[in-house]
Amino acid sequence: MKRYIVGLGEVLWDMLPEGKKIGGAPANFAYHAGQFLGSGATIAISAVGKDSLAEETIDNLKKNSLNFLLPEVDYPTGTVQVTLDNYGVPTYDIKENVAWDNIPLTDEMKEIAKNSRAVCFGSLAQRNIVSRNTIHKFLELTPKDCLKIFDINLRQNFYTKEVIEESFKRCNILKINDEELVQIGRIFGSKDLNLKDDCRNLLKTYNLDMLILTCGVNGSYVFSGNEMSFQETPQVNVADTVGAGDSFTGTFCANILSGKDFRDAHASAVTVSAYVCTQKGAMPKIPNELKVM
Asked: CA 166, 197, 231 angle in degrees (round to 5)?
């Protein structure tokens, strides 16, 4: 069986001002990693309802050449109401008790887990015990050399200290933004240190291979052991920032799996995510000149 790069968690519809677009961080991650490694290398795993949006989900993922495993469950397909401010920055109203809250662990998922090269998961899909257990069991089945990327993704009130800490323990790469890092400090009662020291403490405490910190227009960092990479954020004409962070993670992962140094992977991720900000929606096609590995 081939080895997959997996986006595990929510697949949903972003209800944007100009209309709905397929999204969900794990699906976005898998899509963007696949643009570098080939669409056959990646897969989105989630769940859909028995409704018209489920059919549209499948049609759209096929249109984007993204492999998927989406068991049908007795809950509606997920939706998110997205509003954008004057700078294109989104605010989300994430509907509850939906399909991706209830992802079942199937035999096919178990086989994919045993043959995974990388898995990206977040905190949002762990808000419900059903999907949380599926994610934990999936991660336990992955090989020792699998990259396990926790893209923390704190949304609304859909997280707890326990879920976050368990996820820290189950990942070897953590991706977090500066606002989330501050919130984590409050949740865990950490000392009021600077961002770099906070990141190094997390890296050491949870024995992580790498930690990615994004700071919006103030640049981004990757920490690995005692080394650090910093990249400035390019100035672009922003259409919206939906999916930009996921494109960063997918690009970074694809470059690491292709044998690139974490600094080169970082530079590529910054370039691609900046491009995604110039496009509408979470899954634009990346120009070939940006995909040079």
From this structure: 95
Give the number of other CB atoms < 10 A from CB of residue 154.
Answer: 18
For residue 17, with 0-12 CB atoms within 10 Å meaning exposed, 13-18 middle and 19 or more buried, which class applies? exposed
Lowest mean pLDDT among 19-33, 83-97, 191-205: 83-97
Give the pTM. 0.92
Q: What is 4-290's CATH number?
A: 3.40.1190.20
**Other Cβ atoms within 10 Å of 50 Cβ, number:** 13
**Domain spans of the chain, in order of start:** 4-290
- 32 phi, psi to nearest 5 deg: -75, -35
Rg (CA), the chain: 17
**How would residue 49 be classed by pLDDT, with cut points 50, 70 and 90?**
very high
- The candidate with the shortest Cα–Cα distance to 259, out of 36, 29, 32, 8, is 36
Chain segment 144-157, per-residue pLDDT in tens: 999 999 999 888 88
Closest CA to 77 of 7, 124, 27, 13: 13
Is it the case that residue 293 has pLDDT exceeding 70? no
Find, among 98, 126, 36, 88, the residue nearest to 242 by Cα. Answer: 88
* pLDDT tens-digit series, residues 56-84: 999 999 998 999 999 999 999 999 888 87
Distances in Å between the alpha carbon of 125 and those of 105, 135, 162?
14, 9, 14
CA distance 23 to 90: 13
Sign of CA dihedral 82, 83, 87, 88: positive
